[in-house]
Every structure is written in structure tokens, then in C-alpha cells.
Please model this.
Amino acid sequence: MERPVWIDILTPKQALFFWPLIERLRRRVKVLVTARRYEQLDWVLRLLNLGAVLVGHFGGDSLVGKLASSTERQRMLVRLVSKSTPLVAISSGSVEAARICFGIRIPHLLASDTPHSPVNRLCVPLSEKIFTPRYIPTAEWFAWGARRGQIAAYRALDPIVWVRRARELEEIAKVEPPEDEYVLVRVPEYKASYILGRGLDESVRAIREAQRLFGSVIVLCRYRGEAAELEKRLGRGVRLIRRPVLAIPYIRRALLVLSGGGTIAQEAALLGKPTILFYPGETPAVHRFLARRGLLKVAWPGDAVSLRRMMEDVMREDVRAELRRRAERLVSEMEDPLRPIENHVLSSLD
Model:
């Protein structure tokens, strides 16, 4: 029996990131793709047709729920992967995959741009290699026990993988955003373990400021209950996209992107769109890099005056033109972040 390469996917971003890698590896080797049942992930798995085996489910917004879900999912995955014993496993921070790899003595490769995630306490020590953007200080990985030779850095940000295939994605997704002018808002991932419970209040304040300045606001929601809560707080003056969708078409047509989420902020910056991050926590390394390159502004969510000034500033035409030039320059400098991962996997097959 041919032993597969195993890729475990937990979020929409990971599906988009690993999508081309799965296609390329399948030309050379069998690939087992696993994922979990999760309302944010289901749509993109269907969109990309990755052939993923669904194992377990998202643990919700409590630490106990996350622990119980992870424990049960690990048990189910053991039964699945032990049938074929993968050659190597790849994830962006799957505790279950890293633990199973340790238990059955196969290499686990960590591909991640989120050293701030607490899953790294478990995943980093159990990984053979860490593939990560070079713009992240290695000290952030050393804090979790990484060794210098363990880190393989690439000259790119992760969303460049699907930004470069954006037109193909848009054709598949068939998303038609409104034609009128609007500000696009993304609510933080307030159910994530690293900002658990924070994000909705910050989003409401950001949306109200955007309404005062621009009037028309579209909010990309993550969860069904989130849309109902925002509608209750904000009334019917805001357009809520209640189900998860591909963000890039909405980013392209937006006047401005206000993001509490890290991925959409990166996508918008790489597309040269005026972007303000209001992430309710310490600014992640990749966003600090984008801010240094002048492609992103970082606002403290509670400072309405500062946020308003930033919104007014980025709407100047000279600022917008400079953003487009800087984004094009940065995108042209970036390499394919999947190439070193692919090369490492294929070299292990020889």
C-alpha cells in the first residue's frame, strides 16, 4: 500500500494556503487531506474540492469545549491514519496531527505565520521543521522551544499563495459584491483561544465610526449568532454578510478595509487597498511588517479619535496611489512559500 502525505486543515486560511500544494503533491504521491466540521471551513472545502475527510468538529468558544473536541478528534484521527501510516504530516498548528506524529514516529512539518497562537506550545517541540515567513522574528519561535536549524524561512506572506490565484478563485466562487461604494469590516476571530471573548465590542465601535464617515458599511460575519448580535446592536443600517464567503471580491471593490482579523488585513494590504487593523491584542509580527512597509495602519480599538483620523488619512488619493505602488512592489519581491515545503516533502521520498 502506498503511504500518503497527510495534510490536516483546520481553518479557511489553511485550506487556501495548502490548496496548490495538495494539487502539486498529488501529481507525485498519494495525499490524505483531513479537516473538521466547522461552519467557517465547510464552504471553502466545497469551493476548492480538496477531497478532505472530515474528522471531528470545532470546539466552540470555551476552553473546555475546545479540549474535549480536540481529544475526541485525536482519537478518531488515530484510527484513520493508522490504516496507512503517512510518510509525513503537514499542518498549520494541528495539535492532533503533531501529537499523533510523535506517537507513531513520523515527521510533522509546521507551516505557520502565527507564532502568537498558544497551540505552538505543543506543536513546535513536536515538529521536524517550521516553515514560516522570514518577516517573523525567530525569537518568537524560540520562545516555544524551536531550534535554529528547525526553522525554514521563506520570503513571502502566506496569503500571497491565493492572492496570485485570485482571479481563478473568483471565477470558482462566483461572488458578486455590491457596485456602490462601501467600507468593508471584518470581525475578529473572537472564538479563537488567543483572543477568546474579545472582538465584538471593538467591531461595533469601528463600524459606527465608519458609518459616521462613509455611511455604507458591509460586515463579513464568521458565525450565524454573530450576525444576529451585530444587528441587535447596530440596527439595520449595516449590510451583514451572514455566511462565510470569499473575501477578495469584497476587498477589491471596497473603499477601505477595517479588519479585526489577520488574514483579511494581509489580503487587503497585498492588494493595495487602504487597510486598518483593529485586532484586540498584541499586533502579530506579519502585521507589524506590513505596517513598517506602509501598507497597513494599526488602530487601538478603543481609540475612536485615532481610528477616525486614520480613516480620513487613507482616503486621500495620493495616499491610495502610493499604497497601490507599494503593494505591487512587495508582491513582486515575494517567492512561492509552498516551494520549500514541497521540496522538503519530495526530497524525503527519495
